[in-house]
Amino acid sequence: MQNEWWAKKAQDLQQAADRRDMKAFYHGLRAVYGPRDSGSVAYLYALVMVLPSVITDRQGILSRRTEHFHSVLNQTSTSDPSVLNLIPNWAVNMDLIQPSNVDDVRWPTAVNQMASGNAPGIDSLPTLTVLPAANQIVVTNHLIGSTCCSQL
Description:
The chain is mainly α. The protein has 3 domains: 2-33; 39-67, no CATH class; 99-150, no CATH class. Helices cover 57% and strands 0% of the residues. The chain has 7 helices and no strands. The longest helix is centred in the N-terminal third of the chain and has 18 residues, at 2-19. The radius of gyration is 30 Å and the shape is extended. The chain starts with a helix and ends with a helix.
C-alpha cells in the first residue's frame, strides 16, 4: 500500500515537472516531505523549556541579559595563545591616518549625475532641492566627519 502511494507521488511529481506546473510540483513535495518547519519554532520551544515564564518586568529583563552576556563573554578560551605569535606583523599605512580633504569627496558629482524629475529618494528630498545646497552639505558633512575622527 505504501509503495503504491510513493509510486503515485513520484509519477505525479514527474508529470508536474514535465508540465512545468510549479504549484502542483511544490504541493506534491510538501505532501512527501511534510510542512516546512521554521527554525524559530524549535528555538522558541527550547526557550520555553528553559524559561518557563516570559519575563516582562524591566529588572527581570536586565537581569536575564546580564546573565546571558556574562555566560557568553566569560567563557574559557580553548585556543593556544602561542598561535597569536605566528601572525605576521604588517607595516602601518600612514596614509590612512591622514584626514581627508573636502576636494576628495565625490558626492557633488553624484548629485549632478542624478536625473532630474525623478521621484524623491529615501530621504524624500527631490533632486532639485538638493542641487543648490550640495556643496554646503558636503562641506558640513566633511567637517562633522573630520571632527569625529580627530577626537578618536
